[in-house]
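Protocol step 4 of 6: structure prediction from sequence.
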Amino acid sequence: MTQVLPAPPLVAVVTAAPRRFLPVLPVITLIVTLALPVSGDGGGTLADAVSGLVVVCCALRLVRGRRRPLSRTAAVVLGLPVVGVAVATAGAASAGVGAEGLVRYLQIFVLVPAAVMLLVRDRRDARLVAWSLVGLALWQGGLGVHQFVTGTGASYQGEMIRAVGTFGATDIMGMAAVVAFGLVCALGLALGSGPARQRTVAAVCALALLLPLALSFSRGAWIATAVTCAAQLVLAGLRRAVQVFAAVAAAAVVLVGGLGVGSAMLQERISSITQVADAPDQSVTDRYTMWTAAVDMWSGRPLTGVGLKGFPDHRDGHASLALSSGSDTDGAGAGFQRQPLLSPHNMYLLILSEQGLLGLLALAGSWLALLVLGLRKLLRARRSGSGLDCALVACGLLVWQLVDFVYADIGGPSTVLTALVLGFAAWWALTDEGAGANAHGDTREGAGNR
């Protein structure tokens, strides 16, 4: 007679899921901290502290499991930025300034990405991170829409309508980046091969996030999101791309048409993207003036640049008189402030001016390697029909960040998300878990890093 095994206790069933996701919990905590209000006094933030906790938790897990932390390829790709940063540190104006810049670059481009890559073990963890980013985007986006409707946002053309979420007027790119990341994640999940209900929910979330992204009035985020979503759709399949393009176009007509005065502002903001030589606004003039100054700095020291955090000190000696003294910020719970222009608002030119050609090749080479390896795995996932959602999310987030770097650089509380994005992309590109898990995310823990 066959013996019937007793059912597992209810407590064991209830606690199994939390224990299952315990290793990736520090990454989720990092995302959750970005839902909290931040102070505008500069310096370190709660998210920065939690990012350090992510690194510590990863180190403890590696010691406890006695695992080799990184494969040879992963060590080279993630460690490559250290070369340029170390050389630029030696050329900094002072040891204190150099050390501060070194810590920041290692945090954002080396340590936190490596920790995220190791803590995200398989596709179930990756999907949890992706949905967490979608949830954060919906929260920040909802606050942004409320700010626009009630006139409690940041100042834009004399009206307090700019959606900035909890990031405040001093970090107007923060909410735009968060919402864009959530939209990219939602679109990747919707285009994957998961259950129909989850794909439907993800598609609805992606459409809902279009409105707060528009109300952020961030031209760089718009461009990066448009390029990334188009790439995701094409990589997922041309027939599906045509269907989604039609749906997005219809939704855009409804949303923009229902904004009233906002529609005119959006049209003006969109048209300003191409107004570079023909009556550009002051923000465009400042941006291109600082770009020219960054290139001029690099031409003086082409190999190593002017040193970490050296752009502000050398800016006035290389910028033309067209550069304004700063940008005005107001609203969203803060008073009027004059923010100095301390960076070129282009990550590639910031690296080029401060770290020279050596630093740019090291950092951009690392990012390019992640993109190439990630796209190769994405094509394999599309052929096999397994893990396409994770592939589209990982590669989409990386593409968005690389495009946005043309119009922005690191700085502000949302910067830790750049580290998370690079770590997520590294998990997909550099480990075997992303390619080895089955369609439901099952895989052997640590199979790719032993």
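Step 5 (inspection) to follow. Residues 36 and 166 are 7 Å apart (CA to CA).
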